[in-house]
Design brief:
The protein is about 85% helix and about 0% strand. With about 160 residues, the protein is mainly α.
Length: about 160
């Protein structure tokens, strides 16, 4: 059971790290080339479609599987493995803290700006993008680094 939990921890963090890395290195640079109205519309649609069952399962697994792998007693687990799993779990939790405290509020504000009445500056695509893009990308770089670190730590625990 402990081996399966660690494998699920490695798998879920790997999937999530890959998703965030592709977003950082491919999707956001491509969206960055769009006009303000195109960018704002594209990000709104992405934010509507990403948080679905498959994504949420991986997102929750990134914390649940390392926690379970850490808590399940394992005969023969070295102290190094135990600390690597714990460090991976901490990095994953920090990733989620950045997501919940940084990216999600920006996504929520972006969605709310769509409901601004015509002519209201709160709905102006240039202003909306200016308030969103740089901050969102900054948080995204931090969470990508954290989950990549978590993946590396959990992988190291699995191969020791």
């Amino acid at each position: 059971m402990a081996t399966l939990l660690l494998a699920l921890a490695v798998g879920s963090t790997g999937l999530y790290a890959g998703f965030l890395l592709i977003f950082q290195t491919g999707i956001m640079p491509a969206l960055g080339r769009l006009t303000d109205p195109e960018f704002v519309t594209a990000m709104r649609r992405i934010n509507e479609y990403v948080p679905r069952a498959v994504f949420l399962t991986v997102f929750l697994g990134v914390v649940a599987f390392p926690a379970a792998a850490f808590l399940v007693p394992v005969d023969g687990r070295t102290d190094a493995q135990k600390w690597l799993v714990l460090a991976g779990l901490v990095a994953a939790v920090l990733n989620h803290a950045v997501t919940v405290g940084g990216n999600i509020p920006l996504n929520t504000a972006l969605a709310a700006s769509e409901k601004a009445p015509a002519g209201d500056p709160a709905g102006d695509p240039s202003a909306v993008r200016a308030a969103f893009e740089k901050r969102w990308n900054g948080f995204h770089r931090v969470r990508t680094a954290l989950i990549t670190l978590a993946f590396g730590l959990l992988t190291a625990a699995a191969v020791l």
